[in-house]
Amino acid sequence: MIDLRSLEIFYWVATLESFGRAAERLYTTQPAVSQRVAGLETELGHRLFERSGRSIHLTPKGRHLLGYAERLLRLHTEMVQTIAAGEQLGGVVRLGVAETIVQTWLSDFIEQVNTRHPTVTFEIEVAITPDLKQALLRQEMDLAFVTGPLSEPELMDLELISYPIRFLAGRRTRFEEEPVPPEALRRHPLITFPKNTVNHRDLRQAFQALGLGAPRIHASASLATMIRMAVDGIGIAAIPPVVAQNEIARGELRLIETPLRLPLARFTASYRPAPDAVLVPKLAGIAVSVAHAYAQQHGFI
């Protein structure tokens, strides 16, 4: 008799097109995955995968079974959500996080999860959004808090929070007048996120839209590095002021008044929906609540 675990393994092998990656996704071994698939093929009397070298593809019977497997797994997930509503969930979650979130409300999120689901553990990777997006698409990440929306058909994006982006300068950086005209800002090196990020693009386009041409930009994936460079007078940082509250309070950095306005940095909780997913959507919902509470506390809403 076909059991649900075998269908789950078949679904992930078919989705990831790899026995090895399915084994990693399900925290089991590749021989165990191969054995389950072979058992399914024996029980059904049909080959489910065509194997060509290191690649695999579904046979017509396999494609037919995939539709049934997805529906059964989704029905099982709905049953668990209904019957076990309010109960604790557990497991290991691969979480990708942009550093801005790390520096603001990530600890609040983990504390909330520890309270509601104490057997959940995280494997956390801090990286820029383009890298986290690729990890989600390759199914190497379960959930990510990123600059969004990612707007990929395979991914779900839930709105989290939007941070103002402002210009911050150290004590050594002087201007002849304030508010500082954009052309005066452009004469100084600017500091922001890497060039393959939305933030870098927005900064460059803000000056180009005024006919000033692209400014000189130092890029870094590290907020600590950007803040340190601004404090030392190397350039003017274009970052969310909330991540530099301590430096602003100590007078090491100050907000620059300028008519030039940059778009908000929008963040989403993004993940790949799956028919057997129960925990990740719940965690994304917790993240939305925590982010909204943080935004209200700091006047972002």
From TrEMBL:
GO terms for molecular function: DNA-binding transcription factor activity; transcription cis-regulatory region binding. It comes from the Bacteria. Residues 2-59 form the HTH lysR-type domain. Keywords: DNA-binding, Transcription, Transcription regulation. The keyword Cytoplasm does not apply. It holds the Pfam family LysR_substrate. The keyword Transcription applies. Belongs to the LysR transcriptional regulatory family. PANTHER family: HTH-TYPE TRANSCRIPTIONAL REGULATOR, TRANSCRIPTIONAL REGULATORY PROTEIN. This is HTH-type transcriptional regulator YofA. It comes from Roseomonas mucosa. The lineage of its organism: Bacteria, Pseudomonadati, Pseudomonadota, Alphaproteobacteria, Acetobacterales. The gene is yofA.
